[in-house]
Amino acid sequence: MADNLINGKEIAGKVTEKVKERVDNLKAKGITPGLAVVLVGSDPASQTYVNSKTRTCERLGMYSVMIELEETISEEELLNSVEKLNQDEKIHGILIQLPLPKQINEDRVIAAISPLKDVDGFHPVSVGKMMIGQPTFLSCTPFGVMKLLEYSDVEIEGKHAVVIGRSNIVGKPMGQLLLQKNATVTYCHSKTKNLHNHTKQADILIVATGQPKMIDSSYLKEGVVVIDVGIHRNEDNKLCGDVDFASAKEVASKITPVPGGVGPMTIAMLMENTCLAAENTLDK
Ligand SMILES: NC(=O)C1=CN([C@@H]2O[C@H](COP(=O)(O)OP(=O)(O)OC[C@H]3O[C@@H](n4cnc5c(N)ncnc54)[C@H](OP(=O)(O)O)[C@@H]3O)[C@@H](O)[C@H]2O)C=CC1
Ligand SMILES: Nc1nc(=O)c2c([nH]1)NC[C@@H]1CN(c3ccc(C(=O)N[C@@H](CCC(=O)O)C(=O)O)cc3)C=[N+]21
């Protein structure tokens, strides 16, 4: 049943094509959108994402720098690097790859990013604006999921959307964006009782639990749209999501795979946000 697949890779390609046009327009005006990716330590998974971000920048003709810092760096040193990037006119977007090592307070580092360059949408100013429906940088993963739904002609208004997960970067903003499109939203999390009862009511189910293959067809209503945000790499280097794809695809009307679902969209939205950050400097 390949026909119920939501092809994130393909949709991300369409999104980045549009970004490319905007990049070309900006370049004609003398501005090259620039992204700085800060990577602390050498976690191989993080390295993969970071490489793919800088590669996509190159493909779109954007400027990108990768700043690699030692695992043992102090919070103060990291804050100094962030401040330098805040001041750097060639840099329009700053992404600090999470998680950070234990000695560093993530909240303080995120708060140090200029909200004008917060292309991840993690800064409290961006989150606050999103909550009250003002234009701002939206967190790339939930923003990417909204784009996936839009491109796949999934109706949201009046539908029951169930979000499993309530992290600040995925679950929480995800529910808000669906609410803004007039879905009825239920949040589930690790303390939720009778998870099946909630998920069985979902017309749209967003899974961001960080638990490999946790959601199988027993959690699903026939015809549900399933979006799998999860990403895990197993022993033999194969990727899987938080959804048991083989089981869920038999019941879902539409479903995202892993890889090739939400992941590529996260990167596409990061490019769009960086382009927007560069466009915003024109208005000043
Ligand atoms: N594709 C992409 O671009 C991205 C993918 N990811 C992936 O998405 C997934 C979620 O990421 P993230 O939000 O950062 O993860 P977190 O670990 O921060 O959050 C997981 C959430 O799931 C809830 N949860 C955990 N176990 C259960 C359970 N058994 N039943 C119900 N709820 C549960 C937790 O509840 P509680 O709050 O009670 O602890 C928590 O709210 C991960 O697999 C991650 O790798 C993340 C970012 C981007
Ligand atoms: N500040 C910050 N911002 C992030 O957006 C952020 C972060 N930190 N920390 C880690 C998570 C994870 N994340 C992914 C991005 C792309 C893919 C992606 O493109 N995945 C491909 C597969 C890539 C592969 O082959 O490994 C796919 O799903 O098809 C996955 C995961 C962003 N994150």
From TrEMBL:
Catalytic activity, EC: 1.5.1.5, 3.5.4.9
Reaction catalysed by this enzyme: (6R)-5,10-methenyltetrahydrofolate + H2O = (6R)-10-formyltetrahydrofolate + H(+); (6R)-5,10-methylene-5,6,7,8-tetrahydrofolate + NADP(+) = (6R)-5,10-methenyltetrahydrofolate + NADPH
Residues of the Tetrahydrofolate dehydrogenase/cyclohydrolase catalytic domain: 6-120
Q: Which UniProt keywords apply?
A: Amino-acid biosynthesis, Histidine biosynthesis, Hydrolase, Methionine biosynthesis, Multifunctional enzyme, NADP, One-carbon metabolism, Oxidoreductase, Purine biosynthesis
Q: Indicate which residues the UniProt annotation says bind NADP(+).
A: G165, R166, S167, I231
Q: Does the keyword Transmembrane helix apply?
A: no
Q: Which PANTHER family match?
A: C-1-TETRAHYDROFOLATE SYNTHASE, CYTOPLASMIC, C-1-TETRAHYDROFOLATE SYNTHASE, CYTOPLASMIC-RELATED
Question: NCBIfam families under this entry?
Answer: PRK10792.1, PRK14186.1
Per the entry, what this protein does is: Catalyzes the oxidation of 5,10-methylenetetrahydrofolate to 5,10-methenyltetrahydrofolate and then the hydrolysis of 5,10-methenyltetrahydrofolate to 10-formyltetrahydrofolate.
Know the name of this protein? Bifunctional protein FolD
What is the source species? Psychrobacillus faecigallinarum
Q: Which gene is transcribed and translated to give this protein?
A: folD
